[in-house]
Write a structure and sequence with these properties.
Strand order of the largest sheet: 1-2
Radius of gyration: 19 Å
Number of helices: 8
Mean pLDDT: 86
Order of helices and strands: HHHHHEEHHEEH
Helix content: 55-70%
Low-confidence stretches: 52-56, 222-227
Largest sheet: 2 strands, antiparallel
Strand content: under 5%
Number of domains: 2
């Protein structure tokens, strides 16, 4: 966990930022980072706290946390602080690559920690996580996914592909990946034959696509002005 946070921080520090981001006052830049961290932390713990007996606060202090809602919490917190502070600069691209690399490392932590594994498997690479059952190492599947996305983000940044939309693309791809791999995770059906995480990432993908569409219209209107 600490290594993943360090990778995120170092990558974001070393990553070249746009002129618009560099022009932001340091208090606004710091506020965005703090909001993302706090929102991510709360989002990661929220499902565990809500899932306990009503009124019991122990979930906030347990070890349990989930990356998926942590990402959502961080994203929403950043959007909220930008709205409150009147920040119109797109900051998502500056978080995309650091997040992908942090997730690449973080899922190895899940693997060695024996959590977040998949269902029973007969594949030659199946792993026994201590219960005597060979299972899909879904942590490594996800680590590989984030590594591939990180490589793509490096390429996209160098070629200036999808400027200001790289984070949305990355998170939409992650939502699709997580939705698919939920079928090989030992999770209970929650609604309409889907797990809770599948419903969450499906909603996340739809929301991001809508926001992307709105951004595209906004960009078009800013370029095409009546003469």
């Amino acid at each position: 966990m600490l290594l993943a946070i360090a990778v995120f921080a170092i990558t974001r520090w070393k990553l070249p930022h746009t002129h618009a981001i560099r022009a932001l006052p340091w208090k606004q830049r710091l506020s965005v980072i703090v909001a993302g961290f706090c929102g991510g932390t709360i989002g990661a713990k929220l499902p565990f706290a809500v899932g306990l007996i009503e009124g019991a606060p122990a979930g906030w202090f347990s070890d349990g946390k989930t990356v998926t809602t942590g990402i959502i919490g961080g994203y929403l917190a950043i959007e909220l602080i930008k709205l409150l502070m009147g920040i119109c600069v797109k900051t998502g691209d500056s978080f995309a690559l650091p997040l992908a690399l942090a997730m690449t490392i973080g899922r190895w932590g899940c693997f060695f920690g024996g959590c977040c594994y998949g269902i029973e498997s007969t594949m030659p690479w199946a792993v026994d996580f201590g219960d005597g059952i060979l299972r899909h190492p879904t942590q490594l599947y996800e680590s590989f996914f984030h590594f591939v996305m990180a490589a793509f983000l490096v390429y996209a940044t160098a070629k200036d592909i999808l400027p200001r939309q790289k984070l949305k693309l990355y998170l939409i791809c992650y939502a699709v990946f997580r939705f698919a791999t939920e079928f090989i995770r030992p999770a209970d059906v929650w609604w309409l034959g889907l797990t809770w995480y599948q419903c969450v990432v499906a909603a996340m993908a739809v929301a991001l696509m809508i926001q992307w569409r709105l951004d595209s219209h906004s960009d078009l209107n800013s370029v095409v002005q009546p003469g």
